[in-house]
Amino acid sequence: MISSFTSSIVNDSSINKNRLAIFASGSGSNAQKIMEHFHRHKQIEVALVVTNNPAATVLGRAKSFSISTYVHTADDMQDGHLLKRLVESGISHIVLAGYLRKIPSKIIGGFGGKVINIHPALLPKHGGKGMFGINVHRDVLKQRDKESGMTIHLVNDNYDEGQIILQTRCPVLPGDTPEKLAQRVLTLEHANYATCIEKWILRRNSKMIS
Length: 210
Ligand code: GRF
Prior knowledge:
Rossmann fold, alpha/beta, single chain, disordered N terminus, 7 strands, binds 5-O-phosphono-beta-D-ribofuranosylamine
C-alpha cells in the first residue's frame, strides 16, 4: 500500500529544500562531516538520522545538531513503518554512511535513483555481502593490492553494484595493518563524501529543471 503511493509523495526536491536522511549503524564519523557540511546550507539539509542500533554513537552526533533520529527495528524495514517515517519526514534523498543492513527494494524503489552509499575500497573489488568495516581492508591486504581508496555509488538491489559516482585513491604502504589502511581511507571519505553528495543533488536538480 505504502510503496504504491510513495513516488508521488517523496519530496519533490526541484521545488523544496532537499531533505536528507542519513542511515548509519555505528560511529557516524562520515555522518558528522555531512551534518557539519549542510548545517545552514541554503538548498540541502539533514532532516533525519536513521539507525538500526540503539547504542550507535551517531545518535549523539545527530542530537548535537538538533536533528531528529529514528531507531528502527527489523520489522519496521519490512512492514512499511520505516518507509512511512521517511515519507512523513519529507525526505528527498537517502545517504548511507556505515549502515549495516540491506535496504529493502520497496525503499530503493520509492526513492528511485536517490539513494547513495560510500564504500571503503575501490569497487568493484572488495565489495558484496560481508564486505564491510575492517573485513574490506583485510581483503585489500590479503590480495596484495598496491592501492586502495573509497567509492561513492548509487544504491540498487545488489550489494555495492550501483552506478559509481566518485572514486578517490590512496596507496597501500609497506607495513600497513588493516587498521592503518582503514584510517587512511576514512580520511579520504571525510574529505569527499559531503561535497560529492552536494554536487550530485544539485546537478540532478538542475537537469530536472532544464
Ligand atoms: C566507512 O568506512 C564507510 O565507508 C563504510 O562504513 C564506515 C563508516 O564509518 N560504509 P563511520 O561510521 O562513518 O565512522
